[in-house]
Automatic annotation (TrEMBL):
Superkingdom of this protein's organism: Bacteria
Stretches assigned to the N-acetylmuramoyl-L-alanine amidase domain: 36-175
Protein name, as recorded: N-acetylmuramoyl-L-alanine amidase domain-containing protein
UniProt xrefs under SMART domains: Ami_2
Cross-referenced CDD domains: PGRP
InterPro entries: Amidase/PGRP_sf (IPR036505), Amidase_domain (IPR002502)
């Protein structure tokens, strides 16, 4: 294994592209639907302990289709918000818990879904929106940024990390989606660690 062809571990091609092209997050749209149930987090109303990042796993849907589907099927599962390249849409009050990762994570975290993107630019824009939204929520709820994905402790979670360290489901999103789109468009897998760095960049700019 020669070192010359190995990219620097900490350099993220996706994050670099976002910075180089001055890709900026969109503003949050609030469209709260009255049908979602209101249950308190384990520490109380308005007391989430972190954020869980999801990805829908559906290659054929758009954000409005996903939101409509979730309203119809909220009894099985729902999240607080949806993100794509052009939107951050908050549909459920983040002061109350959502049903996206099972027990015990549901009683701890704000949760949002990313819709699958199909171009390089759209993926980069979506990731920037998602990182900004995590940073915004951390600030909003006075939570310190802390990557939970490698040790199961902290405020920034993937669904995969919640499943691995807390249980409640066997899902692995958005790890595979990030890896796939990173490799496809940037010749380098995108990782939760790299995403966490983008969250920090956004957090510092708030
Ligand atoms: Zn998930």
């Amino acid at each position: 294994m020669l070192g010359i062809l190995v990219p620097q571990v900490n350099a993220s091609a996706v994050n670099h592209y976002i910075a180089k092209h001055h890709i900026k997050h969109v503003t949050i749209t609030t469209k709260i639907w009255g049908g979602f149930p209101h249950y308190k987090y384990r520490h109380g109303k308005g007391k989430p302990e972190g954020v869980v990042v999801h990805e829908t796993g559906n290659p054929h849907s758009d954000i409005f289709g996903e939101i409509a589907y979730m309203k119809k099927n909220y009894r099985n599962a729902f999240v607080h918000s949806f993100v794509d390249d052009d939107h951050i849409i908050n549909i459920a009050n983040t002061n109350y818990l959502a049903w996206g990762v099972g027990y015990p994570g549901n009683a701890r975290f704000v949760q949002f879904e990313q819709v699958e993107m199909h171009t390089k630019k759209n993926f980069a824009q979506e990731v920037e929106n998602a990182a900004y939204y995590v940073a915004y929520l951390l600030k909003e709820y006075k939570l310190k940024p802390n990557d939970a994905c490698y040790d199961g402790k902290g405020t920034v979670w993937s669904h995969a990390a919640a499943a691995k360290y807390l249980g409640g489901s066997d899902h692995t999103d958005p790890v595979g989606y990030y890896k796939n789109r990173g490799k496809k468009y940037f010749h380098q897998a995108y990782t939760m660690k790299q995403f966490y760095h983008l969250v920090l960049t956004n957090y510092e700019n708030l």
